[in-house]
């Protein structure tokens, strides 16, 4: 296994903590929650996206990573589907169609490349009906705990499927941009990283110059060093926000050959060094992006267990009168929580409608502005340079609108989260939830309310410290929202760039042989095409606004409902145990108290361990 895979190391550490937590959870309800958390953690994988123009050797590069010839490769464009390769011993593939049910097909043990040739390449006459193919293959990806997304190569990255740019890039822990040693960073590749990559995704880019063996006899030769410095300069100029671009050089062809024949090769050693750095990079990104939510989930479960155990201990330590009072409070709380769970559905529907209206309005306004700008610009096109400028403005316009819509969604979610947070705090204080029972000198019962953030819920607005970190939180959160918005509005059948600015425009409009009237006629048709396509996007945004709003609002409401449901289940269990609790007061009281106190101490230890672990990750990964 490659060293420095902190993602796997941290997953293993958290798995150990879940096992410790089970020992403190004698109720099946908590054991089920721990098991669910463990399964979520187990399913978590690192995601790598590979993009590149055709003829960059992308399929050979991926085969070199896999260590065997799996994907078909050719000097001509071949891959026509989005292929998701996942490390697994299943040895099959799932084919997901656009308009019919998916199917699972076993992969052959021999001639796999030839078998896939009829599915994932242009040889397949039905390839346009395939949305994506998931290949479950054993090997390096399984060892690294990785998923690799292979995208179709295109002769202009500006014309790449928007669903790839927005959806898969937003989900990726690293995006590998594959370049060619003899044609490094073409104009369309520069436009891609400048205009199509969302701001939150820039720091996940990793550039790989393939076919170094075409310019140098050995890895790390003078020609490679010169080209690498040249590319770094261009990247810094194109993306000034990216202070230290990660650029590597490899020979995928020579590496695959060496691995296939199991022979020593300097190229294979060089590729292995690249893999080590790449896995370290993707691992760090995956830890920063994925692990905090798993730690938070375990802390929440642990705190809930502690709250429940302390409640059980209270029942053993209080008098019969106090016990009756406590059960009365719990019954009242249960009724209020039940009502709150019903009311929340009304709140959610109202929030969805408000967000949907805002998305629809802003989308139409912004795309109308973009349409006017592009039409005016198209009217002045008389050279390839101006056409490329229009492409750039179109791409950056789409990116800008996507990020604007994403910010609107994020701000709406943040306000809703604060509303839920305040409402839950109100319930806690009014009903004295999560209490410690204190008997005063005159036997009056007082209830001390715990801080909600020590229980099950956190908010970006509940402390000055978190307020100061809000920019970082917002940046992280916007990445996922941008991916959702972009994929919803620009994925699938609406291929904005391809439809609006087709390559044939150069042939039809810019040829000198065309007469002036004929060129103007083509230009008018071109502008009509822009209007049609932008209107299609506006129409799609209106149709998808409700879906986007529902997805984002449900995400927050599910967390809030989970908190209320978990608390309600705990209360119902306490109420159901009333007779048992009264009996326990007479039998084995001391033994029960000792057992519960031990479990509380165990939980305290686990919480401290998680907090220390969380602090270490914040220092190590700046999260």
UniProtKB/TrEMBL annotation:
Native source organism of the sequence: Clostridium uliginosum
Pfam families assigned to the protein according to its UniProt record, in alphabetical order: Dynamin_N (PF00350)
Lineage, highest ranks first: Bacteria, Bacillati, Bacillota, Clostridia, Eubacteriales
Residues covered by the Dynamin-type G domain: 42-302
Keyword GTP-binding (UniProt): yes
Listed CDD domains: DLP_2
PROSITE patterns attached to this UniProt entry: G_DYNAMIN_2
Keyword line: Coiled coil, GTP-binding, Hydrolase, Membrane, Nucleotide-binding, Transmembrane, Transmembrane helix
GO molecular function: GTP binding; GTPase activity
Transmembrane domains' residue ranges: 476-506
A Gene Ontology cellular-component term: membrane
Main location: membrane
GO biological process, one term: mitochondrial fusion
Name of the protein this chain belongs to: Dynamin family protein
């Amino acid at each position: 296994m490659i060293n420095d895979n902190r993602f796997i190391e941290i997953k293993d550490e958290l798995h150990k903590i879940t096992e410790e937590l089970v020992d403190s959870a004698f109720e099946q309800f908590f054991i089920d929650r721990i098991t669910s958390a463990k399964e979520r953690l187990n399913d978590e994988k690192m995601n790598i996206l590979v993009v590149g123009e055709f003829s960059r050797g992308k399929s050979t590069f991926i085969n070199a990573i896999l260590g065997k010839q799996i994907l078909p490769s050719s000097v001509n464009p071949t891959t026509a589907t989005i292929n998701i390769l996942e490390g697994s011993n299943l040895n099959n593939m799932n084919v997901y169609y656009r308009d019919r049910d998916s199917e699972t097909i076993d992969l052959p043990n021999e001639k796999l490349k030839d078998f896939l040739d009829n599915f994932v390449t242009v040889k397949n006459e039905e390839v346009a009906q395939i949305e994506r193919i998931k290949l479950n293959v054993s090997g390096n990806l399984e060892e690294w705990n990785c998923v690799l997304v292979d995208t179709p190569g295109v002769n202009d990255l500006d014309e790449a499927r928007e669903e790839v740019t927005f959806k898969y890039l937003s989900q990726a822990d690293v995006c590998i941009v594959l370049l060619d040693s003899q044609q490094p960073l073409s104009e369309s590749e520069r436009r891609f990283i400048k205009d199509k990559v969302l701001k939150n995704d820039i720091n996940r880019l990793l550039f790989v110059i393939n076919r170094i063996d075409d310019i140098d006899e050995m890895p790390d030769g003078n020609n490679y060093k010169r080209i690498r410095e040249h590319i770094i300069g261009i990247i810094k100029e194109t993306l000034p926000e990216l202070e230290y671009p990660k650029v590597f050089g490899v020979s995928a062809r020579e590496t695959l050959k060496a691995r296939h024949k199991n022979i020593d090769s300097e190229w294979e050693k060089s590729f292995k060094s690249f893999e080590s750095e790449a896995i370290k990079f993707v691992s760090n990104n995956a830890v920063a992006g994925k692990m905090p939510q798993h730690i938070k989930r375990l802390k929440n479960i642990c705190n809930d267990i502690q709250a429940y155990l302390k409640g059980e201990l209270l029942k053993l330590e209080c008098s019969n009168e106090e016990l009756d009072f406590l059960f009365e409070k719990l019954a009242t709380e249960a009724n209020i929580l039940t009502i709150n769970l019903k009311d929340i559905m009304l709140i959610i529907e109202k929030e969805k409608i408000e967000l949907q209206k805002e998305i629809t309005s802003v989308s139409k306004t912004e795309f109308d502005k973009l349409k006017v700008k592009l039409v005016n610009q198209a009217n002045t096109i008389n050279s390839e340079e101006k056409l490329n400028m229009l492409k750039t403005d179109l791409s950056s316009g789409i990116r800008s609108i996507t990020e604007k819509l994403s910010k609107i969604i994020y701000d709406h979610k943040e306000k809703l989260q604060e509303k839920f947070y305040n409402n839950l705090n109100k319930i806690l204080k009014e009903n004295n939830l999560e209490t410690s029972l204190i008997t005063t000198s005159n036997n009056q019962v007082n209830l001390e309310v715990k801080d909600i953030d020590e229980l099950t819920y956190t908010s970006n607005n509940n402390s000055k410290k978190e307020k100061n970190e809000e920019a970082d939180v917002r940046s992280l959160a916007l990445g996922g929202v941008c991916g959702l918005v972009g994929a919803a509005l620009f994925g699938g059948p609406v291929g904005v760039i391809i439809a609006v600015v087709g390559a044939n425009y150069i042939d039809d409009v810019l040829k000198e042989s065309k007469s002036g009237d004929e060129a103007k006629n083509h230009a008018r048709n071109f502008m009509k095409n822009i209007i049609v396509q932008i209107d299609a996007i506006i129409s799609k945004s209106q149709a998808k606004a409700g879906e986007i709003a529902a997805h984002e609002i449900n995400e927050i409401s599910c967390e809030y409902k989970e908190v209320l449901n978990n608390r309600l289940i705990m209360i119902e269990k306490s109420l159901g145990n009333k007779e048992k609790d009264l009996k326990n007061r007479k039998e084995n009281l001391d033994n029960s108290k000792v057992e519960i106190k031990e479990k509380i101490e165990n939980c305290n230890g686990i919480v401290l361990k998680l907090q220390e672990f969380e602090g270490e990750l914040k220092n190590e990964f700046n999260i």
